[in-house]
Amino acid sequence: MKKTVEDIKAMKKKEKIAVLTCYDYSFAKAMDGDVEVILVGDSLGNVVLGYERTKHVTMEDMIRHLDAVKRGAKETFIVVDMPFGSYDNKKDAVENARKLINAGADAVKPEGRAEIVKVLADNGIKVMGHIGLLPQSAKKLGMVGKEKKEAESIIEEAKKIEEAGAFSLVIESIPSSLGEEITNTLEIPTIGIGAGNRCDGQVLVSYDMLGLFPDFKPKFARQYMNLKEDIKKAISLYSKDVKEGKFPSKEEIPL
Ligand code: KIV
Which residue is closest in CA terms to ligand 1's atom 8? Predict the structure, then answer.
């Protein structure tokens, strides 16, 4: 059965929360009911649209892919990323978050920005926060929070986002000791990506864990299969069959 915000919050310290990104109908059908949360992430920009950075993703992109995921995932709580530029001020944030909720999201996820989390929560919109590495605005991608001062400011930001009304918090690319400290400090569940094994849940980009994204492989992203290689093998078999006149066969020819 589809989880509610209360169910997800109640999982803290009881059961780990599994989250995966998803961008289309068929993948949504494949993962529906097997994870607690589907994130329609703006990593869409990297793994589906082929941009180097997520900041090129638009509201239209997010709505289009959310719509497809929504048709495939009937039993799973869906969070959608608010794309770069869609929450520059409070008014835009509320307007755009409402568009995403009206398009079928159960909750939205902006990066950082406790004051934006607060205005969304005050308007009755469910919010998953995001701290640590913030790919939309980071100068370079990689681990953050190794220095004491930076670690302290990440902890402060985590507390502010909780106080602002987020129901959970993604923490990305920070040392595992910091992931553990934030998890122990907050009452809401933390969902780690490259943040160690002490978080209340984990999220991965589905294309990374399936071995489908060719451009880079983060160290923390366990690869459960090599889908890119399997696809390549299948395509070369198909191409060979076409060239040798073996496809279509007699059974595959319409009468
Ligand atoms: O867009 C995304 O996939 C994300 C995850 C990295 C958490 O925000």
Answer: 41
* 9 φ/ψ angles, rounded to the nearest 5 degrees: -65, -40
CATH, domain range 5-224: 3.20.20.60
95 carries an active-site annotation: no
The residues spanned by each domain of the chain are: 5-224, 226-255
Can you say how many angstroms the Cα of residue 91 is from the centroid of all Cα atoms in its chain? Answer: 24
Report the alpha-carbon distance of residue 40 to residue 90 in Å, rounded: 22
Q: Are 173 and 147 in contact (CB under 8 A)?
A: no
Provide residues with CB under 6 Å of ligand 1: 21, 41-43, 81, 170, 172, 193, 203, 205
C-alpha to C-alpha distance for 108 and 114, rounded to whole angstroms: 13
Residue 40 near residue 105, CB atoms below 8 Å = yes
Q: How far apart are CA 168 and CA 162, in angstroms?
A: 8
Digits of tens for pLDDT over the chain (255 positions)?
999 999 999 999 899 999 999 999 999 999 999 999 999 999 999 999 999 999 999 999 999 999 999 999 999 999 999 999 999 999 999 999 999 999 999 999 999 999 999 999 999 999 999 999 999 999 999 999 999 999 999 999 999 999 999 999 999 999 999 999 999 999 999 999 999 999 999 999 999 999 999 898 889 999 999 999 999 999 999 999 999 999 999 999 998
